[in-house]
From TrEMBL:
Chaperone in keyword set: no
Enzyme class per UniProt: hydrolase
Domain of life where this protein originates: Bacteria
HAMAP family: Kynureninase
Gene source species: Flavobacterium limicola
Modified residues annotated as N6-(pyridoxal phosphate)lysine in this record: K244
Lineage of origin: Bacteria, Pseudomonadati, Bacteroidota, Flavobacteriia, Flavobacteriales
Positions of the Aminotransferase class V domain: 89-250
Name recorded for this polypeptide: Kynureninase
Cofactor: pyridoxal 5'-phosphate
Biological processes, Gene Ontology terms: anthranilate metabolic process; L-kynurenine catabolic process; L-tryptophan catabolic process to kynurenine; NAD+ biosynthetic process; quinolinate biosynthetic process
Oligomeric form and interacting partners: Homodimer.
Gene that encodes the chain: kynU
Function description: Catalyzes the cleavage of L-kynurenine (L-Kyn) and L-3-hydroxykynurenine (L-3OHKyn) into anthranilic acid (AA) and 3-hydroxyanthranilic acid (3-OHAA), respectively.
Length: 428
């Protein structure tokens, strides 16, 4: 498609967008009496309007039924999480038995490492990406310390080549082969939070397995954003948060995937709890743990239904739309934003460098932009003028045109605000 940097063209794209109506499903903050252009769904998604009804339902059941709500509410609390199995499995490309919801992201990654990071004297190393999200880095360090290893010995980071912003697939594969028989686990973010690079999860997983290691993925920035095929890619485990692209609310519940090939492995250790125990016998209060078959068997505690309600509201919306439709718009609106940035770049003195890969197969709903010659003052200008974006040192803004609630008109208007902010500074 040949793009144009005009309001008329942007409105034409909006008129052809089958998802455009979903903007009305969300609540937008207001700046200067106008709804914002929201680019930070990669950090916290907007609130769907339907969320309140899901939460109110739980609150009303609690008020009217009290403890009996566990069994007699319209959506009984004791099996509330089971409503996620079918829609969530479609979002991440899994069997319904392979997904569950519980805890929060880093908690779940720690719990999954109980099962899948089992170092031995000979095989103890973890491969991860350089500059992974800090929470992952802290997790790796504490895990290897817990097992009696030094991080500098056990953690192997795949680095970017000098002068490059993204990690090359061939370098990932070469590092896996190099570590070889010392490799216990490959655990990488499916989408790098800083650059927006999407990794080739299928190829990397196959390479890790060939080396004899388990392979897991942190899908914080991938779930609800990237076309995933976790089952078919033979991934051992994965976890993700729900509050970014899946709009479940701040700090909300995490999702987990455990491949079915591990469900019957009684030798695989896990930390057990009451809610992972055989559902039909749970209330017999038996002393010996008998895990639920499937990913639910990794649950530990009674689930926080009030937290799950907003997540279910969003998952139901995803089920209405389907990932294919989301990704089709994602690719088009991200390309249009890229075009707008290049157009504005030619009209101002500053220079924009998009450090997210240009290949659509290596990116999703995020463009990370180095603003050469610009500083924090430009970010502040954007925020004061109704563009909610994200600043990362030294001078990177992350822009996530989430297909559920951003429009092509938003992209055009953002370009005009960005240009005004740069030219206004130059004219001072």
């Amino acid at each position: 498609m040949t793009f144009e940097n005009t309001l008329e063209f942007a409105k034409k794209l909006d008129s052809q967008d089958q998802l455009h109506k979903y903007q009305d499903e969300f609540i937008f903050p207001q700046v200067n009496g106008k709804k914002v252009i929201y680019f930070t769904g990669n950090s916290l998604g907007l609130q769907p309007k339907r969320t309140k009804a899901y939460v109110d339902e739980v609150m009303n059941d609690w008020a009217n039924l009290a403890v009996e709500g566990h069994f007699y509410s319209e959506k009984p609390w004791w099996d509330y999480h089971e409503r996620f199995a079918n829609p969530l499995s479609k979002i991440v490309g899994a069997l319904p038995s392979e997904v569950t919801v519980m805890n929060t992201l880093t908690v779940n990654l720690h719990l999954l490492m109980v099962s899948f990071y089992r170092p031995t004297k000979a095989r103890y190393k973890i491969i991860c990406e350089e500059k992974a999200f800090p929470s992952d880095q802290y997790m790796f360090q504490s895990q290897v310390h817990f097992h009696g290893y030094k991080p500098e010995d056990a953690i192997v980071e795949i680095k970017r080549r000098e002068g490059e912003h993204n990690i090359r697939l061939e370098d990932v594969l070469a590092k896996i082969e190099e570590v070889g028989e010392e490799l216990a686990l490959v655990l990488i973010g499916g989408v790098n939070y800083y650059t927006g690079q999407v990794f080739d999860m299928k190829t990397i997983t196959a390479a890790g397995h060939k080396a004899g290691a388990y392979v897991g993925w942190d899908l914080a920035h991938a779930a609800g954003n990237v076309k995933l095929e976790l089952h078919n890619w033979d991934i051992d485990f994965a976890a993700w948060c729900s509050y970014k692209y899946m709009n479940s609310g701040p700090g909300n519940a995490s999702g987990c995937f455990i491949h079915e090939k591990h469900h019957n492995n009684v030798e695989l250790p896990r930390f057990a709890g009451w809610w992972g125990h055989n559902k039909e016998r749970r209330f017999k209060m038996e002393p010996t743990f008998d895990p639920v078959h499937g990913a639910d068997g990794w649950q530990i505690s009674n689930l926080p239904v009030l937290s799950l309600a907003p997540y279910l509201a969003s998952v139901d919306m995803f089920d209405e739309i389907g990932m294919d439709a989301l990704i089709q718009k994602r690719d088009l609106i991200t390309s249009y934003l890229e075009f707008i940035l290049h157009e504005i770049d030619e009209e101002v003195d500053s220079s924009f460098e998009i450090i997210t890969p240009s290949n659509p197969s290596e990116r999703a709903s995020q463009l990370s932009v180095l603003l050469h010659g610009e500083g924090r003052s430009l970010f502040d200008y954007l925020m004061k003028n109704g563009v909610i974006t994200d600043w990362r040192e030294p001078n990177v803004i992350r822009l996530a045109p989430v297909p559920l609630y951003t429009s092509f008109t938003d992209m055009y208007e953002f370009g005009q605000i960005l240009k005004a902010g740069i030219l206004g500074k130059a004219n001072l």
